[in-house]
diguanylate cyclase (Photobacterium frigidiphilum), 620 residues
Amino acid sequence: MLTFFTKNLGWRIQFTLSLFVFITAVPIGLIWYTSSEQVLIKTIEKLYHHSSEVIKSQLDDFFTEANTVYKHQSRLDINLIETINDRDNLLAHIANILNHHHDIDYYYFANNQGALLSLGKIQDTQYIRFESDQPNAGPISSYNVDFNGNGEHILDQKSFFDPREREWYQRALEQDQPVWSNIYSGAIENILGISLSKVLKDTDGNVLGVWGLDLTLDSVTKQLQKSKLSPNSTVLLMNKNGEIIASTNNKHAPIDGQLLNVASGKTPLLQTIWPTISPAEYYKNNSAYQFRYEGEQWVCFTSYYPLSESRDILVLFLTPVSDFTSEFIETMHFAIIITVLLVGIAIYYGSYGTKYILTPIIRLTHSAEAISQGKWSQQIHLERQDELGQLARSFNKMIEHLKSYINQLNTHQDETARLNALLEKQNQKLEERVQARTRSLTEANQKLQQLAYYDPLTNVANRRYFWDEFERQLHQPTGPAESPLHRGWLFILDIDNFKQFNDQYGHVVGDDALKYFSHVCTSCLSEQDMIGRIGGEEFAIWSNVIHQAEAKAIADAILSALALQPLFETEHNEAITISASIGVIPCQYGDKNCYARADKQLYKAKAAGKNQVCINTHRC
């Protein structure tokens, strides 16, 4: 049997053709399939890396805003010891701080006898006040109040509350600097949050009480919702103990004031991957991890955010691969099916063609052998009108036979060209779909860059991007031996009486004023100048002009434009304008504390009556 197959030309041709098609098409298909999946996972990993950087930037702004509260408090020209001894002054001070820092949810003070006065935000338009009923630890009530904390409508009461027993109070006593607490529930409402507290002492070092501010997890979750990049993805913040601090999935919400833990068994998806991502060496790996859950392929990306030197927050992304690749995988599977189909067609036609060609040759060989034996009467009878039939009937018709053979070859060539055109058309469709997906990913990356570098309200540089770019331009060397050459001018601008403007016209008009102010400033700057929003109503400008007169001209142009262009007109045709105070200083290579010096000039302008410019001098 084996000898028959090795000597049979037809079988060898068919086997060789089939093997050639198989070893050519199948590896190409497998290589393409594998490389496509790898490129896809790498693309998802890069996309999540950008998302994690956006979240870290948002957390930086979030937690930096909390530390800025105490810096703001230290800049206010008030006596804190006298303020805490007067209930009305203390409430006014707390309301002032809360209204100037919109990311802060609660701000409060607890004295050394256990009495608490707190003001917080329930919604954007509703405030709540917590206040002890007596000057020491005891009953506490909550009130529905206005933006200034005034109001006597009682919402809830608690028979006894002593803030000195809380972790945020006790942690603050351990050092003089602000310190973060662990996650804990509020005094009356079952709301989880994290506190940044700071002790207040008199001149003799005696503790008078503790200041505190809260960032609720609801506010953190709103920030995470902005970073979701697909419908079924989940973004989480977790600690090393497996507790879910914040999540875009409602199933991960705290239960009865307690954070949900992976070990509870109520999060089967997280419980599946937690043993893999919880070790310390993977915890800070900043990489993607693939796994299967309930028969579906998932991608997990981990990063971390350092809350302090000893505490980190795990940033975790979870998403099914189908969210990103449904159309791509469908196209990929379609291409594989087409490849397999073409392989089958090639094998079939190869087998059929082999049989079609060899059958008359075998008959012709048998006839030739008979003739070689002298059997001249042997005739070749072929009932076909092809080249072999012509050869059997007459050698004189060899040229016609060759022509017929060439015609048949042309027919096969046309069929091959048609199949090639069909394959090229399918490849073109696949390339168009890949290009469309690439454009979508590019747009998503541009959106992430916009969120990371620019303030969403005013569309100018945000605080972090502005100061990074400022430091780069100020401290970047220009030669091997850098000299203290002039680099440019730093402007610090603050809208005058912005709180009263907000109180009078509302926050919506206040936001319009911020956008209008940034537009006016931008129109007065050149393309080389840079403007950024570094606080609520505080902006900064960096200009590389050389002379003081040029810097003064920029500031005067801004003030003139604000004065000449009203923000809006009232129903009595009264033009409403806004003004600003501006502090300006020159900056040289290697300068330190540029912001502090410019801020000092700003406060001089404020003290001199506002709506003016103070440039690097002891008087305006």
Observations:
- The longest helix spans residues 9-75.
